[in-house]
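Entry 14. Structure prediction run on the chain below.
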Amino acid sequence: MTASPRLTTTLLTVVLISIGVSLAQEYRERDGNRGRRRGGRDDRAASRTGIPDWGRKQALPDDVFTFVRIQYQSHNDWGWRGGKWRTDYPDSDLNFSYRLEQLTSLDVDPEGKILTLTDPELANYPMIYLIEPGEMALEEAERESLRSYLLNGGFLLVDDFWGDWEWENFYLEMKKVFPEKEPEELTLDHEIFHCVFDLTEKPQLPSISVAQRYGITYEPGKPGAEEVHYRALFDDDGRMMAIICHNTDLGDGWEREGEDPWYFKNFSEPKAYPMGINIIFYAMTH
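Output returned:
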């Protein structure tokens, strides 16, 4: 497997937030619910669930950041919407890609991709996203490919799993990938919390249903879910290979941004997008 490439200097330069259009202003200007405007139309707009399609630039069309979601098997996938790896898809990926294109200097692929860990294309993308791994069950070939990908320069973003039991399952799976390494808790003074947006707390996002029903920031009924954790895996040179966002749900903040102004104002805008953009910037520059 070849080393996973970083973004080119021309593309990356510096990720610079545009102050011209705030998220709140953009929220008001985009009518309807981006995540739910399907309308039954059989066209490209309908397939993007109302999320704008900005198209690729004609010059260097492949010199873009692509949001890559990982498809994997879980212990209890049978009959569950095709697998837990699909959680929040496609609106989460499309909304986040749109915000990256809108608010930063990155050129972003409007489509994104879904890949398995053993797909030969994996090495072409510098960052991958893995969601709801609390019941993840990898095969040996997937573990070997993930290990190779990360050691060769790739970056893994893990999101949306809750409580002690789901952590234990994920931890044991990752120990099979890296028996010699331990996840390290990131303190709030770590650069990843300040590199673009200067965050004053480690963001904890509940699902929109929990936020609306209970008014709390964690998933109830899951022991150990109350405290948010951002842990990392580092290679032997000290490079962060993975950030593990436990007891939080960044993906719901991206997916559900258009459903409830209160949820958008309290979770999507101040937490989900700033943390996601910080992670992308940090991963692409270290």
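The domain at 9-285 is CATH 3.40.50.12140 (Rossmann fold).
Filed with the rest of this week's runs.
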